[in-house]
Specification:
375 residues, alpha/beta, Rossmann fold, Hypothetical Protein Yjia, Chain: A,domain 2, 2 domains, 7-stranded parallel β-sheet, 6-stranded antiparallel β-sheet, 37% helix
């Protein structure tokens, strides 16, 4: 039997402006009498969100303790400090549970993995991750994602940064509760359409509508241990990647959503590929992700991410084949699988892309991808 009762940690994520702090304030009001501790994470040196919370009497009514974590993100630079702070709070008899408001640019998958890895290294922990709640701005999703997928916007000069859209998709893909905020700004039909799109790449998470941050706390505070593996596999994109690894090229689920993988060791022509994703990309493809390389740059691994009509290509690391021979040998010893899959001409350089969507012409799109390749 555990000597210390394990206390639940509820994490609230969501992009900047989605309404995380509003939701948190409403939850505090509804939890009067409970002993809560709050950790607010913000990347800036001045934590505005924490200031808002301090000005709310509900924090005092809830007998809450609040800690600010600034100048870093709890999914990376502040991860160890974050976990140490949680453990410290959990040992306080005045704390029943902990709520974490993550920064708007946090990746919840990285936070959850760090959380579980920290506990695994310790062997025992006084806390458990209860739930990851993603607050998503319904109005923004509709106007900057769904409308764009329909290709209705002729003027794209103020289009959302594709990196932001992909981050929003990552946050929705890895959670067990989605709170659609600002639903009062849309019609019933528009809200239903957003839910339908979310279901196309996130099949498992509960989706609740939310206006002015008001939500039944019973839907948030579960009291059960967060199932990392189940949430990881709730993403249609993640399942597609795993099927690709098992050499299952194509799949269709009950919602009519299908996925397929594209693999080829030959490099892409950068200009041709960018022209394809910018001007001739099938609007039926909802999500895409994978690693790739380009002719003229045999050093860098590039990450491709696509959400609707938004896409981004980001340099993330170096190919082993571009490294000095001594470094290659060290990597081969540590990761023998790389050597086993080594291409005679290209080494470990390989385009591996996965796409999911509904009603697209796979053969036509694959042909367009192949036309962007060069020998």
């Amino acid at each position: 039997m555990e000597s210390v009762k394990r206390k639940p940690v509820t994490m609230i994520t969501g992009y900047l402006g989605a309404g995380k702090t509003t939701v948190l304030n409403e939850l505090l009001k509804s939890q009067s009498g409970k002993k809560l501790a709050i950790i607010v994470n913000d990347l800036g040196s001045i934590n505005v969100d924490a200031s808002v919370l301090r000005g709310n009497n509900s924090v005092v009514e809830a007998d809450s303790k609040m800690i600010e974590m600034t100048n870093g993100c709890i999914c990376c630079t502040l991860q160890e400090a974050f976990m140490e702070q949680i453990e410290k709070l959990s040992m306080d008899d005045k704390v029943d549970s902990i709520i974490v408001e993550a920064s708007g640019v946090s990746n919840p998958a990285a936070i959850a993995f760090g959380f579980l890895n920290y506990q695994k290294m310790r062997g025992q922990s006084s806390v458990y991750l209860d739930s990851i709640v993603t607050v998503a701005d319904a109005d923004r999703l509709y106007n900057e994602f769904i409308e764009d997928m329909r290709d209705l916007a002729d003027d794209r000069s103020e289009e959302e940064d594709p990196d932001i859209i992909n981050l929003v998709m990552d946050q929705i893909e890895f959670c067990n509760v989605v709170l659609l905020s600002k639903c009062d700004l849309l019609s019933r039909e528009q809200v239903d359409e957003i839910k339908k799109v979310i279901r196309s790449f996130q099949n498992e998470a509960e989706i609740y509508e939310c206006v002015n941050g008001m939500i039944d706390p019973e839907k948030i505070f579960r009291g059960t241990k967060f199932d990392y593996d189940k949430v990881l596999h709730s993403s249609a994109l993640q399942r597609a990647m795993e099927r690709e690894a098992r050499m299952e090229e194509e799949y269709e689920d009950d919602y009519g959503i299908s996925s397929f993988a594209f693999k080829d060791p030959r490099p892409f022509d950068y200009d041709k590929f960018i022209d394809l994703v910018s001007n001739d990309f099938p609007q039926e493809l909802i999500r895409g992700k994978g690693y790739m390389w380009f002719k003229g740059d045999d050093i860098h691994v590039h990450l491709f991410e696509q959400a609707g009509r938004n896409s981004a290509v980001t340099e993330v690391s170096n190919w082993v084949a571009s490294m000095p021979e001594e470094e290659q040998q060290r990597i081969f010893e540590e990761f023998p699988d790389i050597k086993e899959e080594w291409h005679e001409k290209y080494g470990d350089r390989l385009n591996q892309l996965v796409f999911i969507g509904r009603g697209y012409d796979k053969e036509a799109f694959v042909e367009k991808l192949k036309e962007c390749l060069v020998d």
